Amino acid sequence: MTSTPKTILVADDAALVRLFCRSILESAGFRVEEALNGFEALESLLTKAVDLLIVDINMPQMDGLSFLRSLRQKELPIAAIPALVVSTESSMSDFAAARAAGANYYLVKPIDREQLVEFARMLCGVPA
Amino acid sequence: MNEFLQQFLIESRELADAASSGLLALEQSPHDAERLAEVFRALHTLKGGAGVVEFFAMERAVHAAEEVLTEARMGKHPLTTERVGHCLTCLDQVLAWLDTIERSEALPDTAASEADQIVRRFEGDRALSAPDSSSSTERAPAAWVTGLLKGHHAVAPRALTAVRFVPSADCLHQGADPVAGMMSLPDLLALDFSAHLPWGPLESLDPFSCNLILMALCAAPVADLQKHLRGQSGECEVVAIPAAIHDFESSLPPQVTAVIKAQQALLGEECSQGFAGRVASAGLVAANALRSCGRLELSQRVSRAAEQSLLALSARPLEEALAQLLTEKPSLAIAAPDELAQASDLAARTFRVDAEQVDALVRLAGELTVVNNAFGHVVKLAQLGDPSLPDVLKERHEILQRLVGQLQRSVLRMRVRPLRAVLQRFPRVVREMSATLDKSVKLVIEGEETEADKAIVEMLFEPLVHLVRNAIDHGIESEKDRIAAGKAPIGTLRIEARRRADQVLIEVDDDGAGIDPARIREAAVARRLRTDEQLLAMTETETFDLIFAPGFSTVTQVTQVSGRGVGMDAVRSAVERIGGQVSITSAVGRGTRVTLSLPFSVMMTHLMTVEAGSQMFGLPLEAIIETTRVPQAAISKVGGASVVVLRNRTLPLIDLAGVLGVQAVREDGDGATVVVAAANGEWGAFQVDRIVERLDLMVKPLEGLLVGTPGIVGTTLLGDGRVLLVLDVAEMLQ
To answer: What is the pTM of this model?
Structure first.
């Protein structure tokens, strides 16, 4: 990528998942920021330009869904930041709940390396 | 007239104009949702205004037009040419009413029936026409084109043109290198080789015989490639790739489709909060997904739809755009050409400037700052009465002059734009005119990329429309006549633009009947423009020049399109107003060519026009300090001259009419209207009869016999064709 790298904020309480995402995404040319929960994520959005959010549903303090709900009510352009939800649940109801909260897409854990990069690129508008 | 009504008139005229030009643009790109919304808003506001001031007939008529736009926006009924026509008629009527209102503060008595007529026209249209299927038919592209696109699907979306070249077998003997020729095609995206005839056994191969088929995809337009390939020996096919083909051949990758569907679902969620965030993010994600697979046009379209959704506070425009992406491809295919137009429309509104030019400006600004700082030093010298002051000042002034000159040039350079912005509107214009006039015309446009100053590009449309109209109406013959004359049944109209030195040449060329100089002479005599003797003495060029004389027309029959021959003198005055020239040549039976030579750049001067002795003069605004009226008491005679005391300053009073030798039309003894001006440190008050207005015009230096006329900097043409003399304030103050 010759243009400035896109920044992805990974919000997940599990350090392993964050590390995993970071290593995959960084090797695909993205910059990666991390947050441990929804509050942290919201906070870091105020100070950092983020192109994509990768959000876990189950997080302490503020979970992924409440995070998304409050994200979408913020001012533009922050409210418009694409959000990809990752969760261990694969039930339709979970999917629907994520969508209702304002998620743009939904991936099921365990995360497939290539799939993650592919969707990250699509949601950020980076050519494959 | 009350303030309310005045406001209404101003606003309504603006809205009607905006709606008209929007409608015209929509004729070219009926799917331009943004513009649809724009026109709709204009009409809506127009209607609202009419309601407020209780002009109900007008309200009714505009409402009918607004309905048409609403239907187009909802996708219920496309905005056909006919419907646009009705809307335009309605707006014309509105403008006519506004004129009446300005005079009499009321709608004319006939307004109600006129409004009825308009409404009926819209209704008739609605009753008659079921939503029509689009008229555009896509020809299936040749198999080799589709094959080529498939083979290079990664670059295919960018390809505009496909080339298939079969070099002649002996081309290598002629010293040609077909492969190198193809490799150097402009904007080459992909190149394929294959054998023309099956290869024979190795031992019988002639290594100097060329047996290749070369196929290439390029991002350059057909004309460029044709130019490039001219002179190659062999069979060559250059095919424009219809925008549609991309959609037929390479539909969206499944993941992208999945992402887009997810955005549709997101939009479909019932939610009371975070609307903007949802819509904006859905739009962003869909646009990003399209961008990631290289579908930039579609991506832009989605972004625009999202913006509309945000503005309209309705998810609908975005939902529709997404639905369109996922439904049948042909609908995309039809919309595709609009995008090009739209993209260049956008380019017309926003300005692309080379980063280098900006850097140059920044450097200049830096240098100017240095010079400016140096003036602090100069001021100090002046306070100290330093004897070196004049030299220092002179030196600074020279530097400043150089920098300002550079600044002017850089800024002018930035205003340069391609003529495409105007020329691309002509296919539509020609199509319509030829349909109205029942002529078959093929339009060829060349040199769209030629550049000229923004002001020129913007003014060019109207004169060109006149020329094109004349060529189609009076130049190109009917199909029957053409066949009888042994010509190709379809006439060719060519608009070519090119740059020559510091001029831009635009030629409008038709292969029609041409103009008979004898008929020009007859007409000139009949209209008493010239006497027989005068005509005899004229050269052919001068004779043709008569066409541009006001009120000249050789066609007695008034046609719907061309009107009464007011066109050509309008062309001339429009072109001359920006310092250009127009000339015409014609050969009977072979066609007519009109050439516009326009300056490449235009320097606008801010002028104030004043009247003295019932004549108008221009004063450069930069020289003017103030305009005011002085009482008679402030004017006194000193020796032979008058002076006026203004703000404790005694200024020479220069009677403009007197100096210029025209009779002043004003009553003396009642004070004076003066324009206080300064140049080169000299101040003076010009006494004028009246101050007229401020204008931005291009001032042409004096030419020919007038060169060196004292007190005059140059001339410029006013909107009504009158010549305005622009005064040289510096010289007059001396």
So the answer is: 0.37
